Every structure is written in structure tokens, then in C-alpha cells.
Amino acid sequence: MAFNLPKSTASAKAPIPADGRTRQCDIAIIGGGIVGKACALGLAQQGFDVIQIAPDIEQQTPKPSGDHWAERIYAISPGTRTLLQSLQVWDAIDHARLQVVRDMRIYGDRGQASDGLHLSAFEAGIPQLAWIGESDLLEHTLEQACRFQSKLERVVGSLDNLFVEPDGALLKVHTAQGPIEIRASLVIAADGANSSLRSMLEIQTDEKSYEQRAVVANFLCTNAHLETAFQWFLPGGDILAMLPLPGKQVSMVWSTFPENAVRLLTLDASQWQSEFAMLQDGAIVHTLGTLTPHSKPGSFPLRKIRAQRVIGPELLPKVILLGDAAHVMHPLAGQGLNLGLRDVATLLRIMHERESFRPITDLVLLRRYERERHGDTSAILWITDRLKRLFTSANPLQKNIRNWGMGLVNRSHLIKRYLIKEALGEVK
Ligand SMILES: Cc1cc2nc3c(=O)[nH]c(=O)nc-3n(C[C@H](O)[C@H](O)[C@H](O)COP(=O)(O)OP(=O)(O)OC[C@H]3O[C@@H](n4cnc5c(N)ncnc54)[C@H](O)[C@@H]3O)c2cc1C
């Protein structure tokens, strides 16, 4: 018996095309973002025949170089570094374009010196807390590694439909050359926040819009950033992060309400300077000096999405959700991509350690993945959401509690070490 998704064709058996254009593989991956690429590479390296499908899979991300810095920047946790090392891509990344972060300084919105929180690699006895790098740098390096992986085939196309059968799945893919079909034992959904595969499987999501947008841009600063990531919780609920980049440069992520985001996108260099001078009684300018725009600003909506299940369909699971297809969060903790790559690391470990008698779609393996990702994902989404709520609240009592709480945490080495350990995101 075959499941056909969506429901409109639920009773039909998947038709096999007469033209022989059905391809076969162990694992099909839908999505060509960083999460999809890392997963495809890791599974191919384990010896699986992998086909990766995405409309933008062959769009070559140019190697970032020179004085141009992409505005889409990621914080890379040590856990992500471990994954990239195991995929043998970490050393291929141009390290001159990565900035080590050794300190994090977080400031409350009462303007009192005692409200801040300082996390330090030195204090925790580790070399660094994280690295900051361009999205294109990761995309480009992963892309190069994928190109040379003989077990990985890349198909430029979009998933149109999926039929789930007892021994695998049949995927209908739309390509520029016409429709093709792919038979796979296991299917990975890494097709982003609006995952069509998730919808086809009728997996429900818990969603919430933060009614904020993140405005991102790079700035040159006249003061040294001292390898420190700064975050200011501003009165009114805005959150301003300044992440260090190589040289005297920082990457700004300003989470703000949509009307203000529209306004920020239109500012010229001198207007940005007055904007920063006005904030937090000049604390930003005092810390980083004069800030001059060094990239075009961009913006993206902020929302929380959590898929209610990360394997599907319910009765006969053959599909695993990873990355933004499974969860999207507020960027205040810089954990979105890191969490998606922890999904990948967990899946790779489960496949690597699987007992020889188990096929890759064995329900035990899929349930292992589901169980292992549940705790980490729930904790990160919950903490990020609560922090966001706590710092947007205008309630004077909550305002005092949040600021006082940060000062209190700052005085406890034990709690700080715990926070750092959690933020490092090492995969067990
Ligand atoms: C504009 C923007 C800016 C962002 N900036 C930051 C930032 O500065 N810092 C930060 O930490 N996070 C940022 N994020 C969030 C971060 O980019 C995501 O957490 C991360 O990219 C998730 O990776 P992913 O591979 O799971 O999904 P994505 O990167 O969204 O990749 C999804 C892939 O699936 C493909 N796809 C979609 N539908 C189909 C289909 N039907 N068939 C086949 N393929 C399909 C797409 O083409 C794409 O290749 C930003 C997000 C957006 C949208």
C-alpha cells in the first residue's frame, strides 16, 4: 500500500514513468542551504548514494574576497566547528575572514553599569567562545567540497510531490528539462522555514511572529572591538547586537519593529552616526567609536516556528526534518544555524553508529533522531523566546527583575560557566 501526499491523491499508487527517468538513491535531500549541503556531504562521505535537489543548488556562491563583506553573517559555535572539521571543510575555510570571539558583553535597558553580563573565554578556561563569518564563506566552502564528492548527485529542481511506500519514497521533481522521478529509501527535508515537504506531510507547526524584523549591516568602527560580541537590550524591546569581524569592522543585527526597520534601511552614513549617538546615552559610540556603513543593509522577518514532529508521515516515517524546516527562532542568541547543524551532526552520528542489521529507514533510527533532537531544540527555543519576552516587556517589575537578574548572573562564575558550556553547543 502506498501513501500519496498531499491527500487529494491519497489512494493512488505512484505511477512509474515510461521514459525510464526514474533515478535511484539511498537518500534524497530536499534543500540546498547550508544545512542541506552539510548533511548531503556528510552522508555521501559515509558511503550513501545521495541525491540533493534544490532550485539554487548550482548557483555558485562566489568566494568572498577583498574589501567586500556580505551582510549576512553567522556566529559559528564550537559545536559547528567540530561538525565542519569532521566534514573536512573547516581547514578549507579562509580563516582570514573569520573573527574569533573571546568575550561577550550584554547590557540591560536601565542604563546602570551593574546590569551588564560579561562572558569570557579566558574566565571559562577555553580559547574562544565562537567565530563570526559570512554566510557566503560557509556556502562557498561547502559547495566546493560537495562538487568533489562522487557519491553525491546534485539536481537543479523543486520537489512537486512525494509518494511514501513501505520500502521508501518516490519523489516527483520539476526541473528545467522536464519532470523527473527519484526513488529514495530515506528523504531529508532541509527546504527551509517554508518547507513544502513539511506541508506535504501535513506536519503541523507552532508559529509565532515576533512582529519585529532584523536589520543587518556591516560597519567600520574607529575603536578596536577587542574580539568582543556586544548586545544591548534597548528600551521599547529592540535588541542591538554588534558582532566583531576581522579588522575594525562589526556586523550589526538590530531587531526592531517593522516600521523602524523600514526607516533604518534608508539611513545614509551621517544619519547612522546620529542614530548610534542617540542610543543608550552614547554607550554604543563610546564603545565602538564612529560607525560608518560598510555594506548595504538587509532585513528579514523574525518568527518562531517549531514543527510538531521531525519525522513523517506518522504511520510510515521515511522523511526527517532538519534545520529551518524543523525550527526557526529569534536571532538574539545567534543559535539558528548552529541548531540546524546540530540536527545534521546528530543524524550523521546515528547513521554512522547504526547496527549493521538495521536499514536506514528503521523506525528505531528515526525515533532516535526524534528523541535526541527534542531536548536541545525545546531548550533553545524556550530560552530564546523567554528572553525575548522578558526584554520586550514594559512592565516596570519585569524590567527591574531582568536587569537585576543579569547583574546577579554576572557575579556567579558557576552560572556563567554553565551558560558558556550550553552556548558552545558541542554535540554529544
Ligand atoms: C534573509 C535572511 C537573512 C538571515 N540572516 C541571518 C543572520 O544574519 N544570522 C543568522 O544567524 N541567521 C540568519 N537567518 C536565518 C538563517 O539563514 C537560517 O537559520 C539558516 O539559513 C537555515 O538554513 P537551512 O539550510 O535550514 O534553510 P535555508 O537556508 O532557507 O535553505 C533552504 C533551501 O531549500 C530550498 N528549497 C525550498 N523549497 C524547495 C523545494 N520545494 N524543492 C527543493 N528545494 C527547495 C531552497 O532553495 C534552499 O536551497 C536569515 C534568514 C533569512 C531568510
Main attributes?
21 strands; nine-stranded mixed β-sheet; binds flavin-adenine dinucleotide; D-Amino Acid Oxidase, Chain A, domain 2; FAD/NAD(P)-binding domain; disordered N terminus; 428 residues; single chain; alpha+beta; 33% helix; 2 domains
Task: Tell me what you see in this structure.
This protein is α+β, with helices and mostly antiparallel strands and 428 residues long. It folds into 2 domains: 3-61 and 139-206 and 304-385, FAD/NAD(P)-binding domain, CATH 3.50.50; 73-135 and 210-302 and 390-424, 2-Layer Sandwich (D-Amino Acid Oxidase, Chain A, domain 2), CATH 3.30.9. The chain contains 12 helices and 21 strands. Strand 15 (239-245) and strand 16 form a beta hairpin. Helix 9 packs antiparallel against helix 10 (363-392). It is globular, with a radius of gyration of 23 Å. The two termini are 38 Å apart. Flavin-adenine dinucleotide (FAD) binds next to helix 1, strand 3, strand 4, strand 10 and helix 9. Flavin-adenine dinucleotide (FAD) binds at residues 30-36, 53-56, 72-74, 158-159, 190-192, 196, 216, 253, 300, 323-324, 331, 334, 336-337, 340.
